[in-house]
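#data-curation
PF: Archiving a pair of folding outputs for the training set. Convention for this channel: one message per protein, sequence first, structure tokens after, nothing in between. First:
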Amino acid sequence: MRRLLRALLAHAREHAGTVMPGMTHGRLAQPITLGHALCAHGWALARDLGRLRDWRRRADVSPLGAGALATSTLGLDPEATAAELGFGSAFPNSLDAVSDRDVVQELLAALAIAATHASRLAADLIRWTDEALGFASLADAYATGSSMMPQKRNPDVAELARAKAGRVLGDLVALTTVLHGLPLGYHRDLQEDKEALFDAVDTVGSVVAALAGCVETVRFHPEAMRRAAEAPELYATDVAEALVVAGVPFREAHRRVGELVRRLEAEGRTLADLTEAEWAGFGLPGGATLLDPDRAVRARGGPGGPAPERVLEQVAALEGLLAEG
């Protein structure tokens, strides 16, 4: 997982200023930078690593000395054996120690979330490498051909990574189903934790390793991203916010820009087709400058935003988290 995060950050640093269209609902939304998108995946991975660190602290408890359920009459010292074995502490309650497997359940939950994040990254890689967008190209080692169509380069590795999240979630649900009705005490049902645990660990390990290779070797195409980021509809919000700066309440600005965009669509035009006189008549003389992708991302310079300097701040922060271990 750390390798995957490092690969994302290397690209994010390189492409801190590479403009691309941001999407909501799978539709064009606002201009962002590739570095901003990659950092978004990076922050998700950082939280996954944090969850695993938190889990390890709670899992660092030795059950040795709990016996079958009620400790022993032999005067055992669970704290001493816990220290000898390298655990952080011994169990606080022997019946709890033998009854529960929430330590496994919590790990499976963390792995299911990590697998979901990996699935979302895989989905973006698949979308970005679609020939219709052409934002990126997968290395040959991470694409496969078709048994029928000789031109195909299918993103099979990313597709399998996308699908594996369901398998890990299934492991979590399977164990939770086993545990949910058990009364206190040991039951043979609890041995069912092994299959779910081993499968989830192996699956997430293979998915993350495969995606790390995909990301390390992917080639991004800034020119294609920039062309897509020049779509005039991406800048409707910028136009509305410019009206707000000019003193128009946002509700009114939103309405005016919506009406303008719909009128232009009916005329077969876009915001890019407005003349200077039309911009002035709309209350925004020189408004054509609002459609510049570089200006748009630089203007979004607030903390956590897509402006290049903010992306580099995020890269540095994530690199710092990696250095902390």
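PF: Second:
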Amino acid sequence: EKSEGDSIDYLTSGGDNDANDDGDDLLKDDADNEDEEESSDNEEEEEGHLAPIVPAPALQIRHTLTIAESRRAEDKLIGRLRRERRYFRTVATTYAQEVAH
């Protein structure tokens, strides 16, 4: 018994079914494929040359903070540090009280 999964059907073109097939059709197909590969390589190279070139100084532009933004960032940092200090002082005091009892 043969199940459907046991056999593989290979699709061939009509020209490959000749009784006196000597394989010359395959050689023609390979030559055609090589020409197609070369032309696609040339197209890729041409597309690569058309890509826009970004000037180097544009890549080095960095956002600079204004004075107001700088002060706001410093105030935010100082506020965060004060909150952390207050939190750790509370934790340390609570821990010390629990250990003392």
